Fold these 3 entries.
Entry 1:
Amino acid sequence: MKKIGKQTYVLSNGVGIRCSHALVGEKEKQGPLGKYFKDFFTDDTFGQKTFEKAERHMLLTAIEDMLKRNNISISDLDVYIGGDILNQLVTSNYVAEQLQVPFIGAYSACSSVTESLALGSLLVDGGFCTKVLCSACSHFSAAERQYRYPLEFGNQRQAYSQWTVTGAGCSVLDKFATDMPKITKVCFGKVVDFGILDIANMGAAMAPAACDTLTAFLNDTKTAPADYDFIATGDLGKLGSDIFRELMSKNNYDIGNNYIDCGHMIFSSTQGCMQGGSGAGCSASVFSAYIYQKLKSKKFKKALLLATGALMSTTTNQQGDPIPAVSHLIMLEA
Amino acid sequence: MKKIGKQTYVLSNGVGIRCSHALVGEKEKQGPLGKYFKDFFTDDTFGQKTFEKAERHMLLTAIEDMLKRNNISISDLDVYIGGDILNQLVTSNYVAEQLQVPFIGAYSACSSVTESLALGSLLVDGGFCTKVLCSACSHFSAAERQYRYPLEFGNQRQAYSQWTVTGAGCSVLDKFATDMPKITKVCFGKVVDFGILDIANMGAAMAPAACDTLTAFLNDTKTAPADYDFIATGDLGKLGSDIFRELMSKNNYDIGNNYIDCGHMIFSSTQGCMQGGSGAGCSASVFSAYIYQKLKSKKFKKALLLATGALMSTTTNQQGDPIPAVSHLIMLEA
């Protein structure tokens, strides 16, 4: 059986990630992971008329550059699975239209990167696909005006807020990439909420989702955090990752020193991003530029990535509903 | 190999649909399919404070009723795959939170029903899951005010417009339901656009997507429309299905007399719905209440369902972008 425990799936031989590529904005390039972000752009409109079109252009550029540099033809791709945080996944949908690869829209907000990679790896392991393209992305200015305030309003940012990453991450799963970093297990998360009503306080909203999924995964696999040499959560930020650590310790798991949060890691405290980065492009770009590369160079041997998504809607938020969250996990081996 | 041709997947023994259930509003009950819609509600707020909460309550009620009547316990479900047309899939997300089943958010607008069923059937056939819950839904008043005008505005409706169905459809795919109607092939669609800029004209926007996917499927399987005793498109409406018929004939396929459109079928011309129904709940409820039941009673032996999604966003629409569309296909056998 390919399922163990309650919600974890085992991929018989692992599914190789043939290549992974990130493209980020200037602020991300200036952050602590700058040296890993080889590809970046300085004009946040990317030469386009709107921020929404800029996001689209960023994602398409990232995918096309990755395919070109790795000699993968678009016609080799069986399906494309992806998501973003703009309403109706417009970024991914328009890019899918450009690529003309059958497209499966995945939405779990900032957990879209692991939802896509998890689903894609099951389609490869299940014998359906040979090559699957996966992506996730976000753009600060497009997200900010959709979820919070008009950019022109220049609102003050709360001390517990995060900054949406301008970035895209994409990968190609390949049945035949047996010598590359592999996805060996996946765990789909449950939707949970912590009663958070404040759309700026996403770290607190998402921490219980990461805790729920990681606890389920550790129970299913009968392992402990120390069995992995690297554990990364999506975009909890500093505050959210502190809450996550505490919640895990209440579940009797010491998350240890090998734990990082992509949102906490991507910006430094001097960049004015408060608790750190967020957005579907946050864990997607950190995965492609940093985690994947460390696995490729065997610096990491066994890693867990739990991207985290705050499934907030401005409508339900204004109607007084708490923000639900979800976290999908992938286990990676060098 | 489980893939044939360019974009079609074959499920070795087919994946059985153990049960399928629809719950609709009063207008849908009064339409031509009324006698098939056994479950309906007359108060469109469903006793809730907002239409968004009413939609959620409708979906949860549909799922709980289905599980109860078929003696399926929530703990038997491996994963839940679903989508709706409210921003951030809030309906499905909140319902997933209530159910506490690991949740995979799927978004392809009104094609979410076939995206979910197609993905779910691959997860069962691939050996990962035993039981998968799938759903899609929409609510007229919640959708109308999100995508078009405030309800209080009382806008005139264009002659080519459609009416969002208030309804939910849900199903349980079950590895062991070998004597039930089965999904035997699936085909994920490409995103295409026809240059349509008018968000009321969805039938025209989606017709080329249905044509693209059906043509690909027929080519992949080397079959013709006459090989199926029932072909249904999602929610093209009267106008859209006429365009679809014409596009198919340009591709040298006569779609024949066994073709219906769920949107065209669900409302009669006297109900003031112009070209017919739309919304993710349209093909979802018609599938559960009508198509599935006809397969179960062997009235249909071999059917194709191509739900169609207009991936429109109010933001990109106002920025002058055309409406992209997609259609995912499932083949069903009695």
Entry 2:
Amino acid sequence: MINWNNLDTTISYQELSKVAPVKLAEVMSGENGAERVRKYSVPMAEGMVFNYASRPVDEAVLGALANLAKETQLAEKFEALYNGEVINTGEKRMVLHHMTRGQLGDAVVADGGDKRAFYTAQQEKIAAFANKVHNGEITNAAGEKFTTVVQIGIGGSDLGPRAMYLALENWAKVNNTFKMEAKFISNVDPDDAAGVLNTIDVAHSLFVLVSKSGTTLETLTNESFVKDALKNAGLDPSKHMVAVTSETSPLAKSADYLDAFFMDDYIGGRFSSTSAVGGAVLSLAFGPEVFAQFLDGAAAADKTAKNANILENPAMLDALIGVYERNVLGYESTAVLPYSQALSRFPAHLQQLDMESNGKSVNRFGASVDYVTGPIIFGEPGTNGQHSFYQLLHQGTNIVPLQFVGFRNNQMGKDVVIEGSTSQQKLCANVVAQIVAFACGKDNEDRNKYFEGGRPSSIIVGDQLNPKTMGALLSHFENKVMFQGFVWNINSFDQEGVQLGKVLAKKVLAHDTDGALKVYSDLLNI
Amino acid sequence: MINWNNLDTTISYQELSKVAPVKLAEVMSGENGAERVRKYSVPMAEGMVFNYASRPVDEAVLGALANLAKETQLAEKFEALYNGEVINTGEKRMVLHHMTRGQLGDAVVADGGDKRAFYTAQQEKIAAFANKVHNGEITNAAGEKFTTVVQIGIGGSDLGPRAMYLALENWAKVNNTFKMEAKFISNVDPDDAAGVLNTIDVAHSLFVLVSKSGTTLETLTNESFVKDALKNAGLDPSKHMVAVTSETSPLAKSADYLDAFFMDDYIGGRFSSTSAVGGAVLSLAFGPEVFAQFLDGAAAADKTAKNANILENPAMLDALIGVYERNVLGYESTAVLPYSQALSRFPAHLQQLDMESNGKSVNRFGASVDYVTGPIIFGEPGTNGQHSFYQLLHQGTNIVPLQFVGFRNNQMGKDVVIEGSTSQQKLCANVVAQIVAFACGKDNEDRNKYFEGGRPSSIIVGDQLNPKTMGALLSHFENKVMFQGFVWNINSFDQEGVQLGKVLAKKVLAHDTDGALKVYSDLLNI
């Protein structure tokens, strides 16, 4: 029996609030600090580890968090989710994105069939299509191979797939699995589509139109923009486009597309990178085998997330420490700082994943909550960020918890030795140095050169960023966000906050405005 | 006589704290709201306007802010700055970035010459060099024209120039001033350099090495990486590289470069886009005339920033409202949301500009301050953000002030009409709708569909993003950050917070570690 209760009504949260806070600068110093780094480390899927030594926890805090996990039934709620309960209470939908990469529990039957079989069938259909594009069975009208794939989508149909593409582009190039260059058109700003079209050869481009409902205005607008460009080049748009949509969407059976691949209402946009939304573009860019490895990595991390012991479940542990930092210690933001240029857009994806899921003020039953929920998420790759906003992170007046990601090896295997170390060593040395600098600080009589320390961080470490570790990394954060939503007793799977803007934008376009809306519209010459 | 006092010692700040807060949802509704939008608007340089109707101000708040501006002597402090006072107290340096684009006050003589003449001479030298590259007087060893320019730099030598390049790339293409494609290498991650080199033709590439000191480890490492690639291609690196550095740097007189262009210690990296740091790459990419227009736009906005009347000085007004939101209303973050795909990396630049300048806990004399200073800055272009993190902005438990930017016209002149409106109209309708949605909210019995409103924003509106408006926009934010630093009585022009990490990274690379640092180093296999 699962109980859905607000965080502030739980006994364990009251207990957690009373635990003496950890003095991070103190406990991370000397041999004690070394011991913490050895001890506070959890294996993750695909050989990675989640090291939380520099987060503000000790045995007392961890004990309270374990109680909180138990009382809020995190493992049971996850089980209910993957077994097909209607967890998305706002939209009255199941939440099945885990099933795109594996069967974690019972079979789930809906829409007249087994959902795992449905997702697998879509992946196989995509794989067959991609293979035909790669081997030249599917070509442009002139019988020439497609060389470029362009995803047209916005939000979850853009940020996740784009981040994954950038993460694996160079890896695929050096591992000889790079098939087609990918580009992305998302913004309704016409300069976005025009700018991308300016850099590609449309005659050899295949466009993937992604819209679950088939009604996303930005995406349909950009589709028209692209169709015009194809027609102007004397090409037949229907021979250059595929659709990723739901089976009930107007796009599903249209003759406007070479083929259509399906997702469904049980997969939210921000959780759709492992569905056909990511599958089509990534399989076309890197080959279906690479996409399959990516799914394997995510599936392996999902399995780890089933563990009810928080010390053996990095996603659950990360989630709980985050709640402690947010609700007890009062930190408002979290920075995601991957020390990997390939992860340059991963923070933007996590920004959506986290903020759209947990930026809520009502619980899953629609009642206001009396505590803070999802934090602000931002980030850029290191070492770049060190030369940018880290000043505030080190010496600003607010504390921002940090999530580092680092890899022992680079992707492309090219390096240079300067001053006795490789660039990869410098990269790793920097992330290690930052963790300790943030945690321990440094005294100085000159207060301008004084570092208070006590600034928490954790690090996820892997051998290399590749399809499997990328999948595991993605799953880690998806599951972290899910567990936090459970703790806060909110529905992490709807997004009613985006609706009002849509309604008002329609009014503006219909010139059905008054008051401030009218004067602003005049200011923009609409 | 200028007085440098902490914010909390001023009378006007005490007064400001006592003014009744504005009920934004209320005042922005109905005809009152329309009147606010008409009234709370300030002309900016280059035909733009700063509209602050949806910020939480009224006549009482504005009156108190005017008193604060007067008491903290913002206009006098700016005057002292551009006339060459040592405003950067930490490093005991003048702050002269405004002089790269114009003479605002007295002549400033230093390093044996007039500084305005020095900056102008560098711009002329760059212009002459760029023209020779464009007309084929300077070529590769085979006598072929360079087609690509690659900036090697990090932090301020990367984020600003990169954001400006992306902002003007498509504009230059449609206005026939596009000369060379630009790429950027910044991260010490070897995959960054290797990835960029993989996409260019090194034989026709010109590299711009940017390091003020000539000792930035990331940049020198990437220089070596690039030189290896050039040598491996049988090319002479010294025929493919120029340096942007200070006259006293080891790079200044080196035979390793085709030419060297100078900046100096009076220009901080994050304020260097209008110096040779931005000048070389932008002049090579778009031609010196375009860079000159960009400087003109910035100079025009600088002139506006001299005005002591806050209602006629958008940068000063924006700064003061920001301080009110930060220190009195307690908001911790600010989002920058340009409705222009070309400004995709402008938020990343502003993130450095603002957080590195004002993320400080000590005043300009090195004493701790008892109030909060610079906020966290993040952002992505709209409409993309609407499908991502706006959920939290609308319905999350914390309020985040927003800075919108919008343009009436796109850059490339291509558009499509869908459902009776162009993409550009949809883009503008969306930003207008968002402002009102955030400010006014919307009641709903279903609390999951309820919008509280009262979420502040302002918008900067221009006709089109082009070199002049880009320059004015950049200057607006530079001066805003400067004025906020004055109000907080901090030194916005040093960055001691980046030092500790550097020191510890060196220790790691020298294997001179113990405690936590050693165990983390082992974890990363360093």
Entry 3:
Amino acid sequence: MAGNSIGKEFVVFSFGESHGKYIGVIIDGCPAGLPFSEEDVQPELDRRIPAQLKIVSGRIEKDKVEILSGVFNGFSTGAPIAMIVANKEAISSDYEATKDLPRPGHSDYPAHVKYGGFNDYRGGGRFSGRVTVALVMAGVVAKKLLSTFDVDVLAYTKAIGKVKVDKALSHEEIRKRRYETSVRCPDSACAKAMEEAIVNVKQQGDSLGGVIECLALGVPAGIGEPLFDALDADIAKVLLLVPAVKGVEFGGGFAVAELKGSKNNDVYQMRNGKVITSTNNAGGILGGLSSGMPITVRVAIKPTSSIVKEQRTVNLLKMEDATIKVGGRHDPCVVPKAVPVVESAVAITLADHMIRAGVIPKVLKEQK
Amino acid sequence: MAGNSIGKEFVVFSFGESHGKYIGVIIDGCPAGLPFSEEDVQPELDRRIPAQLKIVSGRIEKDKVEILSGVFNGFSTGAPIAMIVANKEAISSDYEATKDLPRPGHSDYPAHVKYGGFNDYRGGGRFSGRVTVALVMAGVVAKKLLSTFDVDVLAYTKAIGKVKVDKALSHEEIRKRRYETSVRCPDSACAKAMEEAIVNVKQQGDSLGGVIECLALGVPAGIGEPLFDALDADIAKVLLLVPAVKGVEFGGGFAVAELKGSKNNDVYQMRNGKVITSTNNAGGILGGLSSGMPITVRVAIKPTSSIVKEQRTVNLLKMEDATIKVGGRHDPCVVPKAVPVVESAVAITLADHMIRAGVIPKVLKEQK
Amino acid sequence: MAGNSIGKEFVVFSFGESHGKYIGVIIDGCPAGLPFSEEDVQPELDRRIPAQLKIVSGRIEKDKVEILSGVFNGFSTGAPIAMIVANKEAISSDYEATKDLPRPGHSDYPAHVKYGGFNDYRGGGRFSGRVTVALVMAGVVAKKLLSTFDVDVLAYTKAIGKVKVDKALSHEEIRKRRYETSVRCPDSACAKAMEEAIVNVKQQGDSLGGVIECLALGVPAGIGEPLFDALDADIAKVLLLVPAVKGVEFGGGFAVAELKGSKNNDVYQMRNGKVITSTNNAGGILGGLSSGMPITVRVAIKPTSSIVKEQRTVNLLKMEDATIKVGGRHDPCVVPKAVPVVESAVAITLADHMIRAGVIPKVLKEQK
Amino acid sequence: MAGNSIGKEFVVFSFGESHGKYIGVIIDGCPAGLPFSEEDVQPELDRRIPAQLKIVSGRIEKDKVEILSGVFNGFSTGAPIAMIVANKEAISSDYEATKDLPRPGHSDYPAHVKYGGFNDYRGGGRFSGRVTVALVMAGVVAKKLLSTFDVDVLAYTKAIGKVKVDKALSHEEIRKRRYETSVRCPDSACAKAMEEAIVNVKQQGDSLGGVIECLALGVPAGIGEPLFDALDADIAKVLLLVPAVKGVEFGGGFAVAELKGSKNNDVYQMRNGKVITSTNNAGGILGGLSSGMPITVRVAIKPTSSIVKEQRTVNLLKMEDATIKVGGRHDPCVVPKAVPVVESAVAITLADHMIRAGVIPKVLKEQK
């Protein structure tokens, strides 16, 4: 079966390639009555371009969104919302010379095998990180919908290379300050060290990865499904399809494998008439359902595969060893750019599950 | 939308509760012509019961499979294959006294909220680890199908608590020896230390978690889909729905977040006329597609939530603080039991994607 | 993709073959809190056996339902409801002699091609009308759910061969009397003529078809989806998968192709503060959405393909012309037996769409 | 669940409204390697505008297609193919005055209820016949794909009002001549009478319906699925979602309800080493699978709901009786315009099922 959509109630369908005419997204299942316009989307697209140009790719993507359908008189209608951005800055000639040389770390080789050579190889084509623009556009709708129901999704950079945020950050700090630094880290001292690490690695013609943490606040208890559509399973799926993500963990994550049960279990208590847990090692999800505590998830992002250094590869036409110097302009570290993508991925999944649970209705009557 | 199935071509549908009459599974989309009988399933079910009883739960589940449909004259027919096992050993009275006291670390509380109290709370009901029997039954079909196409899926215990396998294990060693030890660890010295750790923690009335690694060997390049049905995203989803899994990582995993690109990239080379990579930090998956290298994935399993020690909780009827001593019989460590489940989860996803890619046909003509 | 399920919120999954061990069904998505037991199902299964044995097949299927999961303390839990009936009466030896001779009007030939000969050919296997037992079991759940929301689904025999109900029947008459006659026709004079026609055709070793009409009363306006999941499109799909159905029409049906617009349009008017239409040529559905008027649909059922008379066919092994006398015991007219099946098909689709619209909630709180 | 897509392997996703900016379609699952360009689409779009303007609506839709993604170097890439046409000719002011007056025969009233008034009501919005442009665009891809595998889909007008094609038409005649007449009827004498009937009814300010027949030639035996994804059920679904279609029948259709089995059964015989049936009352489908004979299906199309004559209706704001004279420009008969739509609907479904069966591969290697 074709696989370019995700979700069951809030369905996100993506199309477009890195060097094609457009990147597009359709949201099928946005409730009617959500106030929505192109002005909601633009700021979020701009966040994919870190503020300080010295640390970014030379390719500046001035993405301008156009809504094609599904919005009327300033509100969603209940019909599919289609949005596109044009691919203006792509320089395809960068890729012609090396089209038979798969770039290490990219999907070039398996994509060539899968599609019998018919795939659009330019800039990774359908497999490019560029297509995350679709996720961001859908994420704007999801986040606006969630905020109507007092759910807030906040991602930020927790580590770049070996520079890590060690101290605890308040939700308020994350909410207010994550987009103030170019690296999307709310801790300014840390952010400065991260920037330096990126500048250094760029000078070496090399690249860095990192870790992004995402919190979802205000999600009521009982959202999700048992077993196959577990909320954490669905969130993990959407996060892992983001290019460069190599791991995902919830709450205590891999570290809980070393804890004893008596230490790891989050015990319940009453607070102000509500059931809460004293700790949150579960990351807000139990048995695939939200527990009412903050949902906490982290992803590992690999260092950018496109590096300036010459690398070994093979020539797929001649089936012999070869070398490649990857052309194009690339970020030495995609972590900052990935922050709004991670936020969108989590928001999309939560919107889907909250509509599935009937907590978000099909018509936002109270909006009118 | 209802959420009790997974997959698009090899669809696995699960039903049943921990203390209901049966646990069942349906496989919709198994190609016609696969030799299959109840004798294929039984040994795998038996593997969910570790060999050495001293380290296991007192509840011995003698699961006996019955095939209800989809098999005729010893071959799959192309129609849905339904299988059930009866729940003989469940002692439901263990749960009556504590039905208003959600067990810490379990889904009791969010399930109560989600289903308005109508859910079967006995032993976790639909949310119990017991339902992974369905995955194991489906996994048998998937593994038999994959083996017809020379794909081998091998999981084993990599860590229990703080005891870890440090040395490299050959594929052969893993294949032959993983089910020889009660903890499903092919390294016998390590296995012994793991067993001791489990015995110790059981004596303390406490529990342990661990890490399972799974390899898929022989998967051809180009299996998977770009973006939304990325092979790693789909594998991650199925692994994370396994109860107690809190994290998943591929290849280098979280560690690659600290590497530079020049170190992390797996460069291509020709070997015996085939394209391979010198290293496999990607864990066999690039851009959501298999690269032809071994698929490598690890999951973090939390310590068993059901422990003998008294724990704080709340009374959902009276909405006040309370304490609970969790009844029932439980494993102090579910990691060994989860090994065939993880293997099944990966096998199911690979079978699904290999049929989707057309690499496994709808009729196994060559079988007859 | 595998195709043995239908629906998006109220998902019906079917398994089993005519001469296998069981026919089974799973309902995934039944809201929690519906009172439900095996006693609800049994009477409906019994309706598949017409009251007067002289007009039916010699094969009496004493179907006894067993609920395997999803019901606890007399209520649906929100987990999948699995139900099975054993195939006790099947005599498979009837089919061995003719297994290479496809029966005219049956799926034997294309099924043989599709599954490369691995299909269970006994009694049509997976393609048998016997599998409609699954629809009937699911229909019981759907009808009980709908009745909670004051929706009533009523099917009855409108024609058998050339004997037709000509006069208008009140909803009350249909509701009360449709199961009083062996042919499931509420008009007793007509029913008598239909019975005679069936007895006559049976004596000739031949068979008859007919027309079933189904009404859905009480469906609120606005149920359905635009375009691809139009309510009428979804109802038509489920009706056409019922074996022997060759056509479906709504409201005025094929006859409106000859009307002018001014005659066919159903004009609106206010009645007791509600919007109604003066006529109902649309059959209660406009643009894929329910209009609030009764949904009216008719299906054409072909004469039973299994007849006693010798017929021409081919030998698939020898690839040469042959003749066949179809064995087994068969109804000379399946129309009466199909009445509860049609009712179930419509009820299942309405339950699905009413949950999708949010009109039926995920938890029937008011039930407890 | 959201409902704006159809198909499982060849998935067609539609967006756009009658008076929005664009009508769009995405095809997810078109195999890689199909030669395809905008020039393939344009002629088919032009066929929605009947040749003789005197019989058509004043609104001339000069639809110009733009391909947004999924095509590279003249071939499909395997990625989603997105296409749009701009809505240039829509005059929305026609609809402002009557926005609270639901037009008889249209979805205005149920759509208003469903979406709480947020729906785009202009020209029917998402429910307009205009959105069938999406089906036609997808149909071009499907038909090109099918023709690669020697399958031909041919629809034509069989009746308009009471004027009907009575004589048998050869496949060749239908193929060559169906688009030669403005009414899309290959029988020129009949076509002339149909044209006159349309001109007459237009002068009366009224409208006409009709019947379209569609043949699919060359479909191999064994395509389809048992029960829930029966080929005829899926074809019926797609046909019934086409606005104005009120009934669908296969082969002998409703007439077989009056036949005896011995007359209706299509007996098998060998011809030139192939299995065929002597007659084709089944319309090429048995038990949900193609039989290898031509697939034959007919749809009933209601007379256009928008007529010039004043009609009764209600005012939804004041909830009182009212009258309406429907504005806008409309076809007195949509049957000719619907012919390529019906052809597309059948082609889309066949492409989907032939890919599902593995008969059409995921990569058209032979094309390159």
